[in-house]
Design goal:
Low-confidence stretches: 1-17
CATH superfamily: P-loop containing nucleotide triphosphate hydrolases
Number of strands: 10
Helix content: 25-40%
Number of helices: 7
Structural class: alpha/beta
Strand order of the largest sheet: 6-7-8-3-9-10
Number of domains: 1
CATH class: Alpha Beta
Mean pLDDT: 88
Distance between the termini: 37 Å
CATH topology: Rossmann fold
């Protein structure tokens, strides 16, 4: 049960759960000593609640940059990003961290587990940080999530003691910790063998079946076909969706 201090109703869009995610003419430009590089060029996207969307494109096409601006890890240089009824491009850093922690679960390609914490502690960390569950609920929820992803027996291990597939499973459990409405996965199977990749994709599909919205960056065309919709990027622009 969610704590009373954490109400997800504010995350439900007023338009009947349509257009959960909207990007309007989003541009991202980087400036360096080598010059100016525009990674995203006027991106317009609408994603509905409960969709499983794959984002594909060659290296350098803007896939990861798109994920970063969607999750607030990076800021757009221009344009608007609405998640439900929140204009995330207007949030300050503190507001962004709090919003992201409660509403978005991120699965990174290279796991990003904290090496000095046990697997159980890694999964509990988002709950402790955002205070979305009561303190006496967090341990059991973390254990339940580890059981869901099939690595309950490794709860007290350090990440270095797990295989790559097991670490990715732990990363997914951590991404689910705060029961986010949106899950963003950046090349979640890029470092896994085919068997573990299938397990990870099935876990993501299960989240969609339970009503969550999943965005997955992948270079694998076969995995992309598992999604309900595919957005194709090239040179910072959408060429098909």
């Amino acid at each position: 049960m969610l704590s009373e201090s954490y109400k997800k109703n504010s995350f439900i869009p007023k338009n009947g759960m349509k257009n959960l995610i909207r990007l309007n003419n989003v541009v991202k430009t980087y400036n360096s000593t080598a010059g100016t590089f525009t990674a995203l060029k006027g991106i317009d996207i609408e994603i509905n609640n409960g969709e499983f969307v794959s984002i594909v494109g060659k290296s350098g096409s803007g896939k990861t940059t798109l994920m970063n601006v969607l999750t607030g890890i990076d800021r757009p240089s221009a344009g608007e990003i609405f998640i439900a009824d929140t204009a995330i491009h207007k949030l300050d850093e503190g507001e962004m961290v709090n919003w992201r922690g409660k509403n978005v679960g991120i699965v990174f390609q290279f796991f990003q587990l904290l090496p000095t914490l046990t697997v159980l502690e890694n999964v509990k960390l988002p709950m402790d940080f955002c205070k979305v569950y009561l303190p006496n609920e967090r341990n059991q929820r973390a254990l339940d999530l580890l059981e869901l992803v099939g690595i309950l027996d490794f709860a007290e291990k350090l990440p270095s003691q797990l295989s790559g597939g097991q670490q990715q499973s732990a990363a997914i459990a951590r991404a689910l910790a705060n029961d986010p409405k949106i899950i963003v996965a950046d090349e979640p199977t890029g470092n896994l063998d085919s068997q573990m990749a299938e397990q990870v994709i099935r876990l993501l599909e299960q989240q969609v079946e339970e009503g969550k919205t999943v965005l997955m960056v992948t270079h694998d065309d076969e995995l992309a076909k598992r999604a309900s919709r595919t957005i194709i990027l090239a040179d910072g622009e959408i060429i098909s969706q």
